[in-house]
Amino acid sequence: MEVKAPQLPKQLSKGLHPIYLIHGDETLIVEEALDNIRAAAKKAGHSERIVFDVETGFSWSDFSAEAQALSLFSDKKVIELRLPNARITDKGKAIVEFCDSADGDTVVIIRAPKLDKNTQKQAWYKAVEKSGITTTIWPLKTREVEEWSASYARKQGKSIEYNALQLLLEKTEGNLLATKQELDKLSLAIDESQITLEALVNSIADSARYTIFDLSDNCLKGDLPAVSSIFNHLKAEGAELLSLSGMITKEIRTLNTLINYSQSSSIELAFQKAKVWKNKQGLYRTALQRLDKTKLENLLKAAHSLDMSVKGMSDEVPWQLFYEICLALAGNQQFRMRKTA
């Protein structure tokens, strides 16, 4: 059955299903949903966790064997399948077989980007929908971003004035990872229980010389010296790489979306469809003058490789790969993007 993200915790409290599919491009909300499922599974005794990345060369027989094998460390286990795209080499046969034979000792969690309607008509998706739970993570609307941000602030022990929240979201452009990072900083920097507009302005004024937004803007602008300087500054300060990579990946995806939309409409309409803030449209125009669809697709592949390396799931050096992506996004013509799977 399809369950909306806000209702997932309540559904989990009623008992576990054998299989879950969480798909969407709002990374932070996807992770929250996955964490809820993992916590519920652990509480139910599924203490062993096995992760498969469904990439080029992946063998579905490995998944089937693991799904049928007895757990080495407990009576129950969780198997996570991470799909970088909707292409499944065995057409989902292994997933269908699991759904047909699930015995409750193994819970499967599938994570995927937003799956289109054609994929949702495939047999494996229908099998998951019948035997378990599917949850689609849609991009949050403005009001939902406000509600999420205020809720996260409360979890940090803070309330936030409406005007302060509006300034914060204008600064982060509604990007949840960036908003979370800023709220984490504010919760440490502000002693009072409420984040007021004055306190937020003072915090911004006292913050580091460079921020994630400076890096993002200069990557779009194509200012290579500035990108290199800001990168070194952020790395030296111990900035959170997951947030940095999330912001840069968002910019790459937005540029790719703009190219797709602009093929059938004006760039102005493309900006509207992609929900690009007016103060950033000039930067995106500049970036689109030097980046074509092929380059952006290669950058998306590199961003996926970066995500794997940040999570310790590849041999890449995360900070080095991130630096290379920033340079390529900024238009370094002498730089040659490495091939990624």
TrEMBL record:
Q: Which residues form the DNA polymerase III delta N-terminal domain?
A: 20-132
Q: Which UniProt keywords apply?
A: Coiled coil, DNA replication, DNA-directed DNA polymerase, Nucleotidyltransferase, Transferase
Report the enzyme's class at the first EC level. transferase
The UniProt catalytic activity note for this protein reads: DNA(n) + a 2'-deoxyribonucleoside 5'-triphosphate = DNA(n+1) + diphosphate
Superkingdom of the source species: Bacteria
Name the InterPro entries for this protein: DNA_pol3_clamp-load_cplx_C, DNA_pol3_delt_C, DNA_pol3_delta_N, DNA_polIII_delta, P-loop_NTPase
List the residue ranges forming a coiled coil, or say none: 162-189
Per the UniProt entry, the Enzyme Commission number(s) are 2.7.7.7
* One Pfam family from the record: DNA_pol3_delta
* Gene Ontology molecular function: any one: DNA-directed DNA polymerase activity
Decide whether keyword Nucleotidyltransferase is in the record: yes
CDD domains the record matches: HLD_clamp_pol_III_delta
In this chain the DNA polymerase III subunit delta C-terminal domain maps to: 216-320
Signal peptide stretch: none
Can you tell me which family this protein belongs to? Belongs to the DNA polymerase HolA subunit family.
This chain belongs to the protein called DNA polymerase III subunit delta
